[in-house]
Amino acid sequence: xxxxxxxxxxxxxxxxxxxxxxxxxxxxxxxxxxxxxxxxxxxxxxxxxxxxxxxxxxxxxxxxxxxxxxxxxxxxxxxxxxxxxxxxxxxxxxxxxxxxxxxxxxxxxxxxxxxxxxxxxxxxxxxxxxxxxxxxxxxxxxxxxxxxxxxxxxxxxxxxxxxxxxxxxxxxxxxxxxxxxxxxxxxxxxxxxxxxxxxxxxxxxxxxxxxxxxxxxxxxxxxxxxxxxxxxxxxxxxxxxxxxxxxxxxxxxxx
Length: 255
What we know:
This protein is α/β, with parallel strands linked by helices. The protein has helices at 6-17, 30-41, 81-89, 130-136, 169-172, 211-216, 236-245, and strands at residues 23-26, 47-50, 54-55, 77-78, 95-98, 102-103, 109-110, 113-114, 122-123, 139-143, 181-185, 189-193, 200-205, 229-230.
């Protein structure tokens, strides 16, 4: 049995994608933990940007939300949502984190409705800043649970563009060249996108998970590379740091 939880695996896997001397737009929950973990272990000069306006903080422990006062602890700026979105539009944000209720093979996300838009079965929170993050960040990291209801052939609504219809369609629609989904991280695997078709492809499967299980939990065909990597499990240093970041167990269970 693994000596780590799913949330710990997701947080560590996401943190490893982040790079030093890059700017990352983080949201509440796992993205926030991943950003703090990366900053403390391998990316000390990474610029964390919170949606509510905290820019470049050195956060002591996990904030409750992006509006918590701790998001401006030792920050270089206590700004505003308008300023943060302007930074995104100007092309200053390297990484953005997103989640969603549905995702398709091209990384498009739905966080608006389930069912017809005019008479939905479920009305979801909507875009918030998600469209801005997915449209304008250089790379987006998508974290979400995987099953056939979430990995769907066709979205009920496109809230946030991924690679749209694949190929060059994202760039032909006027979105910044070189931007788009970079990784999708689920409880089963990590995915990237095939460079030409822009279709979702297995990047690595998590320890104890086989390719068949990954494919069975998607309503669309996921591409399978010739070589299958195994996701590196969390290290002791990562697990110890997660406990320091989230000492009361808001997202990471207390040990």
